[in-house]
Specification:
The chain is an alpha/beta fold. The protein contains 13 helices and 10 strands. Strands 3-2-1-4-5-6-7-8 form an 8-stranded mixed β-sheet, sandwiched between helices. Strands 9-10 form a two-stranded parallel sheet. It is elongated, with a radius of gyration of 23 Å. It starts with a helix and ends with a strand.
Length: 355
């Protein structure tokens, strides 16, 4: 099997599959210590990275130009790599069911070019059990190799916060896990090269998967509580932020605020956990209640705008309403699952003129 020494001496290469807001920063950091192959299916993405431009804005131009990364859209280049890190999106479909097609596709690509003695590491957010139940069988089928004998698998969930210039990859503790102690030890050593905040070895792949998915579920529920409180205080004629500032004077009051919950993480990940729970016969109530509240906030905000227009005597039909900002959060160019669209669509039902 691949060893840490063979990576540090650059006898063996590391590949990062998927060069989005997760994969690219990881590849750039790793390139300072290892030979890195950056693979992405999109030829346009490869060309822009080769020219020194990152559309996600997660990596500065000078960092991109300094990183010695072999960018490619040729899956055959993965054959020469002994550690392959998969960092592809894990979205949900229109029915809020986990869409594992990017993960399955990446596993097929990796499996079809997997060399004996390699280690495949997944960083994508999934439900507990997905790596072993979905990914490993595909790797075996495509490669003709035997898991545990010819190759091993690890899971180290990404914790990137898009647009955050303070909590960057190297400053966020990394959870790692492996299909066996040796693999876990290898990944501890690899990630320790780039993550200075520390490494947390999880006891199993499922534990690491579960840890990741509940991080965003917990945050989603806390924001849902704030959103519900804001609705209650609005009816009571109380300023929600004033209430939260007063409550925040106690040391153990958590400083969450009401708002829209969109994007490709917090508004998506809880559905992975509830999907798996329901598949096993348990119906989650609190998690789904939080999701309903947060998914309905765009409509609620639009309705509040309409009521405010009426309150000041403005005609609703034809009223001009400016929407400033459309991405799912500040300082990012990402429009995926932005809830600002929900506000706009609801306002259009009232024939409002959106600027």
């Amino acid at each position: 099997m691949v060893t840490f020494d063979s990576l540090t001496t650059r006898e063996n290469k590391i590949a990062v599959v998927g060069l989005g807001y997760v994969g690219l920063p990881l590849a750039v950091h790793l390139a300072a210590h290892f030979d890195i192959v950056g693979f992405d299916l999109k030829t346009d993405r490869i060309k822009e990275l080769q020219s020194g431009f990152d559309r996600t804005l997660e990596v500065e131009e000078h960092q991109l130009r300094q990183a010695a990364i072999q960018y490619t859209d040729d899956p055959g280049e993965l054959t020469g790599c002994r550690v392959i890190i998969v960092a592809v999106p894990t979205p949900i479909d229109a029915y809020r069911i986990p869409d594992l097609s990017p993960l399955r596709g990446a596993s097929k690509t990796v499996g079809g070019n997997l060399a004996k003695g390699s280690c495949v590491v997944y960083e994508s957010t999934v439900y507990p059990g997905a790596t072993e139940e979905v990914c490993i069988p595909i790797l075996e089928a495509e490669s003709g190799l035997k898991f545990g004998q010819d190759f091993t698998v690890g899971y180290s969930p990404e914790r990137i916060n898009p647009g955050d210039r303070i909590h960057t990859l190297d400053k966020i503790m990394k959870i790692v896990s492996g299909s066996d102690p040796t693999t876990c030890g290898l990944l501890v050593n690899v990630y320790s090269k780039v993550v200075k905040e520390g490494i947390y070895p999880a006891s199993s792949i499922k534990v690491a998967e579960a840890a990741k998915v509940i991080e965003n579920t917990q945050r989603d529920l806390n924001i849902a509580l704030m959103n519900e409180l804001s609705k209650i205080f609005d009816i009571m004629g109380i300023d929600t932020l004033e209430v939260l500032e007063a409550a925040g004077t106690k040391w153990n009051f958590l400083p969450f605020r009401p708002g829209l919950v969109g994007g490709h993480c917090i508004g998506v990940d809880p559905y992975y956990l509830t999907f798996k729970a329901e598949a096993m016969g348990y119906h989650p109530e609190m998690i789904l209640a939080g999701r309903r509240i947060n998914d309905g906030m765009g409509k609620h905000i639009a309705e509040r705008v309409i009521k405010m227009l009426i309150a000041v005597g403005k005609q609703v039909r034809g009223a001009k309403v400016a929407v400033l900002g459309i991405t799912f959060k500040e300082d990012v160019p990402d429009l995926r699952n932005t809830k600002v669209v929900d506000i706009i669509n609801e306002l259009k039902h009232y024939d409002v003129d959106i600027l």
